[in-house]
Amino acid sequence: MRQAEDVSSDTLSGVWTDLIGQDRVVEVLRRAVDSRAEGGNTRAMTHAWLFTGPPGSGRSNAARAFAAALQCPSGGCGECNTCITALSGAHPDVTLVRTEQLSIGVDEVRDLVRRAAMSPTLGRLQVLVVEDADRVTERGADALLKSIEEPAPRTVWLLCAPNAEDLVATVRSRCRLVELSTPTNAAIAELLQRRDRIDPVTADFAARVAQGHIGRARALARSEEARNRRAEVLQLPVRLVNLGACLSSAAQLVEAASADASAVTTELDAKERAVLSEALGMGATGAKPRNVQAALRELEDQQKARAKRLQRDALDRVLTELTSFYRDVLIVQTGAGAELINVEQIDAVEQVAAASPPEEAVACLDAILVCRKALEANVAPLLAMESLLISLSGIA
Ligand SMILES: [Zn+2]
Question: Is the pLDDT confidence value at 7 over 70?
Fold first, then answer.
């Protein structure tokens, strides 16, 4: 992944302001917006776009900014009602699809396709932003393909995915590709200071350890608890001295990840349940006809899937931190001279580096990869983490 060259840019304004280090992308999108305003007959504009980029690079932000700019009478001023509602998802002609589920099924896609076929009510276009297009199921992709192949005249699809290869070739080949690059640490630190009012020292630290992930950098900059938890994870490699330590650490990590998930879901679950109950007309009597029970069960299933995904995301962050640790160990061992990510943990890094050969650090990196794949394949989180920590400890 190439690194963006620009640290800060004077040219970003309006809806594009926060798309740091993406000057080339912004230029392409702006040209499309301009050509649209001039009648849309140039090749700069098209009806299906695919935004790709590593997690945290801001691909969905770029798609949303583009959606707003396409609707805004001034091409994305960032201040008018059109821009504000389009960015927040409240604009009637901008549909934002974000999912906490592991997949986007065919029914959901069919709803979108129906919406895509409708004429815009207020805006100039009907814009559909699908944030996790890589999660669209195969049958969903078939339904999507038809709409992309024979688009309604004023419909624009904006799909987002980590990689172009995450979409089936038939859909991919009909989209114009917009590739976001990993923002530099300096650009992220600057954004944290400007947008989130983070002090320079914390902003620099958060940008360095987040390794190009803007959302992660922001979370670390804003939460001392998040910073402390990260520091604890990075102590694991020197603390896994016996089997007991491995097992108890694995249990703690999984518990903390569930706590992270329920911090997000508890309130949300209750709210969704209340909304659904009301929609189904369940009175104070609490009577539940069979179809109501089925609808509630379906909601519960979706909520369970969401909690599971959030827990997995939290464990994935742990794996990312551990990866950065062993990367630093390798740098120290090989004298490669690259900058360390975990400067604050230099003692632990040097301790591990001195105690084992580089082959062992490489084996640890492999073990982390295996664990990540196991979690993706729905192996029980506790088993996956136990197995990882035992591998890292070198006692097995
Ligand atoms: Zn505007």
Answer: no
Tell me how far the alpha carbon of residue 72 lies from the centroid of ligand 1, in angstroms: 4
Q: What is the pLDDT of residue 109?
A: 92
d(C-alpha 202, C-alpha 206), whole Å: 6
What's the rounded Cα separation, in Å, for the pair 83 and 76? 6
Phi and psi at 160, nearest 5°, equal: -125, 140
Q: What is the DSSP letter of 180?
A: P
The average pLDDT across 365-390 equals 96
Give me ligand 1 centre to Cα 66, in Å.
Answer: 11
Task: With CA atoms as reference, report the closest residue to 219 among 236, 200, 198, 194.
Answer: 198
- Whole-number Å distance, alpha carbon 61 to ligand 1 midpoint, is 16
Average pLDDT over residues 322-331: 97
Q: Quote the CA–CA distance of 196 and 193 in Å, as a whole number.
A: 6
* Model confidence pLDDT, tens digit, residues 31-63: 999 987 776 566 788 999 999 998 888 999 999
Least-confidence region, from 36-50, 73-87, 282-296: 282-296
pTM (2 d.p.): 0.80
Question: 62 CA to middle of ligand 1, Å?
Answer: 15
> What distance in angstroms lies between residue 85's CA and the mean position of ligand 1's atoms?
10
CA of 118 to the centre of ligand 1 (A): 23
* Strand ranges across the sheet with 126-130: 94-97, 126-130, 155-161, 48-52, 176-179
Q: How far apart are CA 360 and CA 250, in angstroms?
A: 20
Distance 67 CA to ligand 1 centre (A): 11
Residue with tokens 């900014």: 65
Give the model's pLDDT for residue 5. Answer: 44
**DSSP bridge pairs for 126:** 155
Distance in Å, CA 14 to ligand 1 centroid: 8
Centroid of ligand 1 to alpha carbon of 84 (angstroms): 7
Cα 70 to middle of ligand 1, angstroms: 9
Kindly state the average pLDDT of the residues 309-331: 95
